[in-house]
Amino acid sequence: MKNRRDFIKKTTLAGAAVATTPSFGFHILKKPRLEQEIVGHGNYKYKIVRDWAQIGTSRPLLNCHEMVLDSKGRLIMIGDHPANNILIFDKSGKLLDYWGTSYPGGHGLSINDEGGEDFLYLTDSGWYLNKFGKMTPHNGRVSKTTVDGKVVFDIGHPQTIGVYKPGDPFRPTEVAVHTNGDIYVADGYGMDYIIQYNSRGEYIRHWGGKDNNDQNYNLSNAHGVAIDYRDSNNPMVVCTSRNEQSFKFFSLEGKYIKTLHLPNMKVCRPVFDDTNLYAGVCWSQPKVGKTDWQDHTGFVTILEGDTVVSNPGGTAPVYDKGVLQKSYQLESRPIFHGHDVCVDEDKNLYVCQWNANRTPPLKLERV
Question: Please, are residues 334 and 321 in contact by the beta-carbon 8 Å criterion?
């Protein structure tokens, strides 16, 4: 790995890429870059590769929401364009496959190896952009599928099993799958519950929401959920409480453990790799003035343990007497809205962005 890193560092000063031919025969001339974009801090610095995804003009995009790496080394992305919900890339950015028109609010994507076969867990958030450019609600959906899109089963509205009252919205944003097969669904745009099912999609329990006597259990925009295996003897369910700019840690049975507050960072789902936690920051507050929810104020954050060590696209993390201070998007806005991060075996990052002028995922090549 060290030799590879040294090689990358030497080659980051090389000239910009010349013309390439993406999938489907579209020939696109890449404009030479006047200067390279290097973002990040400390041991976590990256070169931004904006033209990594080679999709030509045949696969239109709206928002690139999440991405996972499968066992074959392919990068699978979910988005919300009605013509293609799933895009599958190789490491070079070549588009290998695409499918799906049944998830107009395509939002969350997780992958799980089950007996040597990869399965996808998709969430449709219950919101889609209609032909008039307005966000429109519909019924949310959670599906388990094969990598090529065959539906294994759906998890229906929690009202059907008596967990929700009639009229309660179900707009799921994320799924996490434990090694025992249990499925944790984050209803981040609905009732803010984490709902636990077994491997067959049968209800076990739920927690979270907004009106708990113990406020540690409250979640506000439970946007993401993941399993933290960094302590193999104590795996935890980690839930995003985005409006609180926090991650909340629970036992596998939903018992509250701790809160990790990241001031000024409206984070999306936690992504774990080795001892690191990565997350897209969809919004941060500006140093001066106010912002609209569509304004570009995002970046990416990286933690070692519970300590922020780098903010690619943002200002360097600062601790004062052990307390993390606010971080801000760089004025150059290299990243608009960090919605998800995927990490490959070389520790390069792939960043999916919401509301980023319909751009494909960025590659952040570690230097």
Answer: no
CB of 341 closer than 8 Å to CB of 335: no
CA-closest candidate to residue 193, choices 228, 144, 143, 237: 237
Give pairs for 261-266: CB < 8 Å, separation 24+: 261/324, 262/301, 262/308, 262/324, 263/324, 263/325, 263/326, 263/327, 264/326, 264/327, 264/328, 265/301, 265/327, 266/242
What is the tens place of the pLDDT at every residue in 103-152?
Answer: 999 999 999 999 999 999 999 999 987 778 788 888 899 999 999 999 99
Residue 329 belongs to what H/E stretch? Answer: none
Mean per-residue pLDDT over the chain, rounded? 90
121: amino acid identity, one letter: Y
- CA atoms of 311 and 317, how far apart (whole Å): 7
The CA distance from 75 to 86, in Å, is 10
Contact criterion met (CB below 8 Å) for 104 and 122: no
- From residue 4, give the alpha-carbon distance in Å to each of 44, 304, 351: 15, 22, 22
How far is it, in rounded angstroms, from Cα 353 to Cα 124?
Answer: 17
End-to-end CA distance of the chain: 12
Cα 252 to Cα 43: distance, rounded to the nearest angstrom = 32
Strands 117-124 and 349-353: unpaired
Rounded Cα gap, residues 259 and 176, in angstroms:
19
**pTM for this one?**
0.89
pLDDT digits (tens, 9 = 90+) for 293-322: 889 999 999 999 999 999 999 999 999 999
Backbone angles phi, psi at 365, to 5 degrees: -85, 120
DSSP secondary structure code for residue 4 in this structure: H
R_g (Cα) of the chain, nearest Å: 20
